[in-house]
């Protein structure tokens, strides 16, 4: 049996000291099994924070409780509760997995998904497709980063292509307007006026859309 770290030993001692408080022992136990049950620990931490239970246990803040009792840094505790909250809101079916027959995504991977959704750097359908891959495969944080990088590159390439098409359309519309001016004397007045008006509207629209994308 591998030697327990000082933190693990302290957690086990506290579990014995507070054996009469099942809820407190449960959180301590889940902290000790953090590597393979981050979802369980995230759930417990979210509950302790939401109910201010740490106050009943003699701690002045959630941060102090995590640091002194569970040996967790604030950043780690915040990431755990945020990742658990993300799954609760956007993928509750993942919480029903046992972590054995069905894999639970790595906590850092879920955290990266949450940040990516907030930044809105990808179209919704593209993001949902990547998230579906993450939840169906064992995707590491580094692999997810590559997926996002590739997807953002594809998205930017698509937008650049659309922008070039719009620019070409505006150039052609201006050329046609110039030709129309030369042919105006040989065209029926109403036809020339109608075409000129429609071309003007098209040029204005394309120009305004181009300005919006540059902002």
Summarize the helices and strands and which ones pair or pack.
Elements: H1 6-17, H2 22-32, H3 38-51, H4 53-56, H5 62-70, H6 74-90, H7 107-119, H8 124-136, H9 141-183, H10 189-214
Describe the structure.
There is one protein chain. This protein is mainly α and 215 residues long. Among the domains are: 91 residues, no CATH class; 54 residues. Helix 1 packs antiparallel against helix 2 and helix 8 runs antiparallel to helix 9.
Largest sheet: none
> Strand tally, please?
0
Count of helices? 10
Structural class: mainly alpha
Gyration radius (Cα, Å) is 29 Å
Shape, please? rod-shaped
**How much β-strand is present in the residues?**
under 5%
Helix content: over 70%
Give the mean pLDDT: 80
Query: Which blocks of ≥5 consecutive residues have pLDDT under 50?
Result: none
Order of helices and strands: HHHHHHHHHH
Keywords:
10 helices, mainly alpha, 215 residues
Concise description?
The protein is mainly alpha-helical. Helices cover 75% and strands 0% of the residues.
């Amino acid at each position: 049996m591998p030697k327990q770290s000082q933190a693990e030993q302290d957690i086990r001692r506290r579990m014995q000291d507070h054996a009469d408080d099942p809820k407190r022992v449960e959180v301590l136990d889940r902290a000790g099994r953090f590597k393979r049950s981050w979802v369980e620990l995230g759930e417990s931490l979210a509950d302790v924070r939401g109910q201010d239970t740490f106050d009943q246990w003699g701690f002045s803040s959630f941060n102090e409780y995590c640091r002194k009792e569970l040996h967790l840094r604030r950043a780690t505790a915040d990431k755990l509760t945020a990742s658990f909250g993300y799954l609760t809101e956007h993928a509750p079916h993942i919480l029903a997995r046992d972590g054995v027959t069905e894999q639970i995504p790595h906590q850092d991977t879920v955290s990266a998904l949450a940040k990516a959704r907030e930044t809105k750097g990808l179209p919704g359908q593209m993001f949902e497709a990547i998230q579906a891959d993450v939840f169906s495969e064992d995707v590491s944080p580094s692999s997810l980063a590559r997926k996002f990088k590739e997807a953002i590159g594809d998205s930017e390439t698509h937008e650049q292509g659309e922008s070039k098409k719009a620019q070409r359309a505006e150039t052609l519309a201006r050329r046609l307007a110039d030709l129309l001016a030369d042919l105006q004397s040989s065209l029926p007045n109403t036809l020339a006026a109608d075409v000129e008006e429609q071309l003007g509207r098209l040029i204005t629209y394309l120009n305004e859309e181009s300005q919006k994308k540059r902002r």
